[in-house]
Structures are given as C-alpha cells and as structure tokens.
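The passage that follows is intended for readers who have already worked through the single-chain material. We present the inputs for a multi-component assembly, then the predicted structure in tokenized form, and finally a short commentary. You are encouraged to pause after the input and sketch how you expect the pieces to fit together before reading on.
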Amino acid sequence: METDNATPRWLTEDEQCAWRTYLAVNRLLTYQMEKDLQPFGLTMNDYEILVNLSESEDLRMRMSDLATATLQSKSRLSHQITRMENAGLVRRENCESDRRGLFAVLTDEGHATMKKVAPHHVASVRKHYIDLMTPESLASLRATLKPIAEHLRTQRGKP
Amino acid sequence: METDNATPRWLTEDEQCAWRTYLAVNRLLTYQMEKDLQPFGLTMNDYEILVNLSESEDLRMRMSDLATATLQSKSRLSHQITRMENAGLVRRENCESDRRGLFAVLTDEGHATMKKVAPHHVASVRKHYIDLMTPESLASLRATLKPIAEHLRTQRGKP
DNA sequence: CCTAGAAAGTTGAAATTCGAACCATCGGTG
DNA sequence: CACCGATGGTTCGAATTTCAACTTTCTAGG
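Having made your guess, compare it with the prediction:
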C-alpha cells in the first residue's frame, strides 16, 4: 500500500528564489566564461585541462586522474584530449610502469597558450564573479559551498 | 605600443578556492539532479520547461519567451520541444495574433508527469542543496548571487 | 501601397556528449 | 604458473547541442 505519498516539503518562497537564482547564475556564468574564452579558440573544458596539466608534476597527468579531476567520463576526456592533441596543445605519452596507461602531456605550445590566456581568463572571472562580491560574501559562500561539494562527491558513482 | 600587458590581478588563495569550489558544486550538482530525474525519463531541461509551462497562464508559452526564460537558443529549444512533443508532454499550437508565432502547450500527460515528478525533484534539491545549509547561509547566498545574476543578464547578447 | 529590414521559428549538418561494449594489461589467488 | 575479476583507455552508435542558413510574417518608412 505504501506508494510513497508523504506530503512533500515544498520549497519556501525564499528557498525557491535562492535555488532559481543559483541555477540562473550557473548558466549565465558558464555562458559568459565560454564566450570570453572563445576569442582564444578555447572552451572552459580545454582551459580546465590546461590548468590541471600545468599545475602538475612534469606537466603531465594520467588520463584517469585527469578525468577524475575534471569530473568527466573517461569517454568524454578521451575525445577531448584527441581534439586538443589535434590542436597541438597536448600530446599522449605511454606510461612505463603500467602499460595500459597513458599520460596527457602539455606541449610547449599548450604551455604558451596557457600563459597567454590565463590573464584574460582571470580578468573574466573577476569581472563577472569575484569582484561582484565583498570579501565577506566570498568567504561565506565558500564556507557554504565547500561541504556541499564534499557531500556531492561522496554521492556520485563514476560519471 | 599598448599590447595590454598590465600585470594581471591573480586570484588570492581564498578567491581561487572559492571559485574552484563553485565550479565543482556546479557540475556535481547538475550531475546529481540529472541522475535523480533519470528514472522518470526526464532531463533537467525537460523539467525546467514543464515548470515554466505549468506556471504560465493557460499552461502555454510562446517559443521565444520560453527560450528566453530557460536561457536557451531558439534552435535548441525547437529541437527540445520536438522531442517533448514526441514524448507526449507538450504540443505546439498556432498563435492567432501573430502568425509567425507558436505556443508550446502543456498536455494533460505533461501536466500529470509534472505532478508526479515534482515531489521527487524537490526532495532531490533539498537533499543535495537546500537542506545542506542553514537558513542564514541560504539567505546570504541568495543576496550575493542575485546581483550577479542581474549583472550577467545585462552582459549577454542572444545565446 | 510597397519595400527593406527585423523577428519568430524551423531545419540540416557538423561537433560534442553519453553509454555501453570492447581490448589490453594488472594483480591477486589457488 | 594460470585464471579471473578489476583497471585504464578507446571506440562505436545514439542522443544532444551548436551554428549557419532559410521561410514566413511583421513593421516601419517613404
């Protein structure tokens, strides 16, 4: 008989507003970042990978680790790296210790691109996000979101 | 000579952390919401359209308005509605006053689906977002994000 | 009235993403 | 050592998204 018909706890006015605002910022911001990166021929995805690689030991990362770090499926990353490889930003290299494995390695060109684009991207992030809030707001936001990120990380299987 | 080489204002440690956390929540949350909707055969996109329609006068909206409301391109929305039409959730109807125009109208089935799914979706939003913060955090977050949404809305052209 | 844009939507092809199936190698166990 | 389930990655086909035409209808100016 139990067909799960407990009265749902609907969102209050405020909660609803908060949620929708969040969703809106989410999309609008993504759109804007994407747009600001476009003149350099990069997507957010490209950029994030460049960041990860350039912050890594030897400018390289195992495909798996990169997939985990950027929260993408293995399949998607594989395609993504192929495209970036064609664009000359990245190169695949075999892993000695595990012959199944591959590294994605930042090329010189990739590194140069990174250096050129980073300032613009940072400016964009500031202009459309960071600089629009007070340091207190930022701190509060971070404190609120951090545990949520943790929670969500534990929830998910392998995307 | 001006080649735009002012020293960029890099992000501070805290800012960097806030930004990355935001990005992470962004993706993880989207992923989770999507996943929780999957058993009902809906995507976030589907759901959002159902919400918009069910909150509208006569359960209908002009394609353009719907596109604007959901922040999608006309093209994307058109395909989207076609799919939902095939799924029986929505139906297209001509506009009397403007013969170029079309309405997307919620069907009975669409309305029923909405009613069935909404409680689960709300529960999901609570579980993975709203209920993970205090009311104060939520209020603060809303207050911070609201102006950002405004700013971003003014920035963008037609996606 | 006529015409040149603009606006509303659709369409089709190309690019991206997803999911499942697949291949090869690893690591542990009997 | 030989087997077997896990890991690391790629690949293929289907679904989704994007981008650039294209059609039809409006609207405003002359």
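Commentary: The domain at 22-155 of chain B is CATH 1.10.10.10 (Arc Repressor Mutant, subunit A). Residues 43, 45, 72-73, 75-76, 79-80, 83, 98-101 of chain B lie near DNA strand D (CB under 10 Å from a C1'). How closely did your sketch match?
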